[in-house]
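In response to reviewer comment 3 from the previous cycle, which asked for concrete evidence that the modeling workflow produces usable outputs, we include below a single protein chain processed end to end. The sequence was submitted unchanged, and the resulting structure tokens are shown without manual editing.
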Amino acid sequence: MKKERPGAIIARTLLPLDRRPISAAKLAIALLTLLVYQSAVTAEAESCPTTKDEISTDRPDVTNSSLVVPTGSLQIENGVNFSAREGSRFVDGTNTRLRAGIANCLELLVDVPTYFANVRGPEGSGFSDVAPALKWQISPIPGKVDLSAVVGVALPSGSAGIAGRGAQPYVQFPWSWELHGGWGLSGMFTEFIRPSEPTSKLITEATFVIEKKMTERASLFVEYVGDYPANGSPAQLLNSGGLYHLTPTQQVDFHVAVGLNHNAPSYIVGVGYSARFDELFSARRSSVSIVPRS
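The workflow returned the following structure tokens.
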């Protein structure tokens, strides 16, 4: 799963008990192909974010941002969730995702292992896997729709009871469409590959978000999340929440989710904080902005 948020907790209900690692050579080829393809395609600089743009995060909704981090910037996104599923109660954190702009329209992201603490119930506790990925912003495409492509893999570094066994690659495509009056639509299509699963080797995740900008700094959203295994019953979730920009490079957020069927968690409640540090990879260095927007 892309990160330890509502979608990650849904995915854990579908994880097989046994996994075998995929070929490291195949993974390296896939990552190299993305880099070569990105280099071969001419992307206009003005189409991707710069340090003049506000922070755009992959949280608190499951749907990732369709925009990359500006070149030379490091973005740190964090959060904590409290969830319930089948009589168990979990607290998981810090849900940290590191995002670095390594080239124009290209970012490297890493999901740091999250600790799942079972505070009540029979299930165990432990860490999730570390999951690196590359994200390329393809957009804008006709129709003013922003689109990105992501390829990543969860490496077998966490607790088997929490993250499963073996490497678990994924590809995903987040998109967004800004409408009039502060309204926006977005969504994401993700294909998770589970090499060792005897039945459902693939899990397809689809998300759809309606967002409304309430003020210059605050937004609210409602999101549908559905995980559909190749063989098996889906897990569906309704997620809602909001975010507030403390400064152009700092954000606080919250979300509340409820399961729509028995395969999904009963509920998830979470809060988070994110910050972007600009021009870290250039001669001039700067810290997080603490100056309020005019």
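DSSP finds three helices and 14 strands in the chain. We consider this sufficient to address the reviewer's concern, and the full set will be provided in the supplementary archive.
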